[in-house]
Amino acid sequence: MSEPADAGPGSPHRVKVWDPIVRLSHWSFVVLIPAMWWTAENSEWGWHKRLGLVLLGILTLRVLWGFVGPRTARFADFLRTPGTVLAYFRGESGAGAPRAGHNPAGGYSTLALLLVMLAQVSMGLFAGDPFDGMTGPLRPLVGVMTADTITEVHETFFYVVLAFVVLHIAAIIFYEAIKREHLVGGMITGSRAVPPGEEGIGALPVARALAAVLLAGGFAWWIAQGAPPLT
Ligand code: HEM
Known about the structure:
By secondary structure, this protein is mainly α. The chain has a single domain, classed as Transmembrane di-heme cytochromes, Chain C (Fumarate Reductase Cytochrome B subunit, Up-down Bundle). The protein has 8 helices and 4 strands, in the order βαααααββααβα. The strands form 2 sheets. It has a two-stranded antiparallel sheet with strand order 1-4. Strand 2 and strand 3 form a beta hairpin. The radius of gyration is 20 Å and the shape is globular. The structure holds protoporphyrin IX containing FE. Protoporphyrin IX containing FE (HEM) binds next to helix 1, helix 5, helix 6 and helix 7.
């Protein structure tokens, strides 16, 4: 179903909803999560570690962006009150969908996906056995028994990440096919049709974006070095 490109008063209009950092980080998750699985299954530990550190950098960037990015990227914008989420599920009008940004359910699903990916990557940093394959860069900071336990949980927790991803994709298919809300196009192009009165976001705040990329990249690099003392 095509959406009107623009509009007169009272009809939906297209606005910019997702900035390039949200979109690029999203589509890199889509590439990196299967790549992390594949490299582990095929014992490509060098790549598993490198891509894991890239994923750490991108997750860090997305978390920073949740505080300093444009409105729709911010946690404060999309983590709505439990009352709003319940009203949304009950289908009460005005409870949030469609709007320029995550709907009340999508906001918490975003938080959950980011948290499970962060948990998985963080465990990977401490995982591994130096006599059998690769170790995470922070492995020397914990004892052998702790590292063994973390490694086991890291392996099993992948299925938790997978479950959240499957749920997420099922929800997107439900919105596209049943509710006729075209979310995927928005995550690709950055724009979607929203009801009158809803405002989109402006141009990318380049200086803030650069600062966030440098900070996130610097953090991932520091972790890759084994988190050496900074003084
Ligand atoms: C490894 C797989 C995936 C992960 C980890 C993932 C993760 C995420 C996260 C964290 C967000 C929130 C975006 C943000 O605010 O930063 C999101 C949103 C979204 N994802 Fe995914 N995603 C995955 C796969 C997919 C796939 C395969 C599609 C569709 C083909 C998809 C479509 C979307 C859409 C449309 C949104 C925006 C939802 C909205 O409008 O509120 N995702 N995803």
